[in-house]
Every structure is written in structure tokens, then in C-alpha cells.
Amino acid sequence: PLPEHGVYTVFVELGNTKIELLHPYGENSPIQGFLNKNKSGGIHHICIEVDDVTKAVNDLMAKGIKALNPIPKIGAHGKPVVFLHPKDCHGTLVELEQS
Question: Torsion angle of alpha carbons 39, 41, 44, 49, nearest 10°?
Fold first, then answer.
């Protein structure tokens, strides 16, 4: 469990791809909010590894893409992450993770 993120996580690795399975941890979990809106579940977000998360988010913001957290925070893998606003990414929540 990752109470600071409001989730339980399980990672499945398939070659160079990781699939993260999420389950809500507590009533205020962002995942619970997602499931309340999407009763069948679904893809919550995709994650893209980048060499320099700060540079990547600054480059994207300069092109008009909004970041939900422009200052990186530590994600589930213990690495800095930034989330991009779904409205600027064709409805998909995108996570940038420092490689």
C-alpha cells in the first residue's frame, strides 16, 4: 500500500513494459474517484519515462500543455513524476517519470 498516494499498487513487468494495477486506499483515493466515474474500470493513466522530468515538463508547458503538478513529486516507483492535464492530452492523464 502507498497511503501517501491513496493506492495499493501491483507492478507487472513484460519486457520493456510495466503495467501498474491500482486499487483505492481509503475513501479519498484519487483512484476511488476515477472508479466512481467509470464503473467498469479502465485505463487511469499512461506513464512515459523521460531522461529529465523537469526539462520535459518545462518544454511541454512552453507549448501550452498544462501540468497538474509542475514541480515534480515522488511517485510510486520512488522517482520524480509530473502529471499532465488530460484536457491537453486528448482526454488521457499522462504521467512523466524520471528514468
Answer: 180
